[in-house]
User: What shape does this take?
Amino acid sequence: MKRYVLIFLFILLTALLGTTAVWAQQKGVIELQAVAEQEKAVINDKGEKMLTRIPVTTVVPGDEVIYTFNYTNVGQAPADNVVITDPVPEHMMYTEGSASGADTVIRFSVDNGMTYDLPEKLTIVGADGNTRPAKGSDYTHIQCRRQKSLAPGETGSVSFRARLE
Assistant: This one.
C-alpha cells in the first residue's frame, strides 16, 4: 500500500508540475516554481502547538496538500497579463475558499479548462438535467490572473489546497 501511495504521489506531482501554464505578455519572462506541502503540528520551544509546512512525502486518502506556485519576472521589462492556470490534480478535490494570491483574480473551471468564471457564477447540469451551483469538488482547473504589472525581478505566489479522495 505504501509503495502504491508513493508511486501515486510521484505521478500526481509530475502531472501537476508538468501541466501548469504561465502566460505573460512576453513569453519566457516568467520563471515558475511549484511546491507541494502539507501542514504538520509541532511543539515549539515554549511548548506551544504550531502548524508548520513540510514537503509532501506521502499522501493517503483524506490528506490535504497545499500547492504553491512562486513566480518571478526574469525579464528586463515589466510583465503584463500574467496568468497561472493549473488543473486540480486527478483524484484530488479542491478545498473551497483556499485559493489565494496577492493582486490576483482567481477563477475556476468546471469543464476541464474550457471556460473560467467566479465561483458564484459556475453551475453544473446534473444527470437529471437540473442545474445546481458548482461546488469546490466540481472544479477541474484554477486560473489566477495578476491584476498589476510584475516588475523585473519582482516575485509573487498563488496557492490552493486540495484533498486526496
Observations:
- The chain has a mean pLDDT of 87.
- The two ends are 16 Å apart (CA to CA).
- The domain at 2-164 is CATH 2.60.40.1170 (Immunoglobulin-like).
- The CA atoms of residues 6 and 58 lie 6 Å apart.
